[in-house]
Amino acid sequence: MASGCALDEDEALQAGHSHTLYVTYNTYLYDLAGNRINGTSRGFTASGVEDTTIPVVTDTSLPDGSIDVAVNSRFVFSTDEALSDSCLDRVSLLSGGVPVAASVALGADRRTITVTPDVALSTGADYSLSLDGLCDYAGNALVTTVLSFTTAASGAADTTGPVLQAIVPASNATDVAVTSTVTITYDEALSLLTALW
Prior knowledge:
mainly beta; extended
């Protein structure tokens, strides 16, 4: 289990300057087992411009209103800028307005969040995924976003990958117009995030 703390500066950081944070081996910071912290330092450079832009959800793994969602699904969304760990508790999975236990993980790119229910979801049930107040490093909060979906009637976990059904134009087709749309069809819905290419 990780733990963190936030440091609030009395004054704004100097724009465009490099800053270093030193955490030293001392007698004040211990873990739960009584071990002292190890010393470390981290450097960063402050931007020359104040960030007042709110993060925006750019992609989600399922469209709002999806039906027949597998009971073992995980939900992924991405934003247009890096998010702060301090606001991750603002992601909620709900069923009938009641919170559903789920883990929330911020990806290494700090723009992708994965929500994984702790147990299989109920069959044929309505759920909503609420993103209310996620924020960037400057504290700018995302506009509330709610995605609703309904789980499949089957309680069976989806453990089989999608199977290709068709590709248009057909293999070895000739004289295909340069303005043609290439269509690929699978036997089940794909995550919208993986379908981006």
